Amino acid sequence: MALNDVEQCEEKHVHIHFANKIHQDMPDDDKLYDLAELFKVFGDSTRIKILFALFESEMCVCDIADTLNMTQSAISHQLKVLKQSRLVGNRREGKSIIYFLADDHVRTIINQGITHINE
Predict the structure, then answer these.
(1) Which residues does 32 contact at the CB level (< 8 Å), separation at least 6?
(2) How far is CA 26 from CA 35, 36, 40, 109, in A?
(3) Cα separations (Å) of 88 from 40, 50, 78, 95?
(4) How much is the pLDDT for 3?
(5) What are the residue ranges spanned by the domains of the chain?
(6) CATH classification code of 28-118
(7) 30-81 per-position pLDDT tens digit
């Protein structure tokens, strides 16, 4: 999309009260960087599939791999990324490691995303 394809104001006039409010409320650069990194994690369809599977039920790596028709190695790699991003957690049950969504925020993000694409 060329710059000329974007509608613009006919004359430049800065609405200083909006600019000041946004400047005041804007998170610092470190927080914005962390937010951008979080959204990058959601940019991989395999990770989204894993999150969606965990949205439905807690599962071990074997079950996730079988459900998604992927190797355990591929699933483990993606679970590591999701865990480092604090989107999933895990616990040991005997010889199995059970993965789950880290908290209700992850559930909300997935729900909001699905709602958005279905509109």
Answers:
(1) 26
(2) 12, 14, 20, 21
(3) 15, 10, 11, 19
(4) 55
(5) 28-118
(6) 1.10.10.10
(7) 999 999 999 999 999 999 999 999 999 999 999 999 999 999 999 999 999 9
Strands 96-101 and 59-60: antiparallel
pTM of the model: 0.80
DSSP symbol at 26: P
Chain-centre distance for alpha carbon 69: 22
Query: Residue 48 carries which side chain, given as an amino acid letter?
Result: I
Q: Are 30 and 66 in contact (CB under 8 A)?
A: no
> What region, left, alpha or beta, does residue 57 occupy, with left being phi > 0 and alpha being psi -120 to 50 degrees?
beta
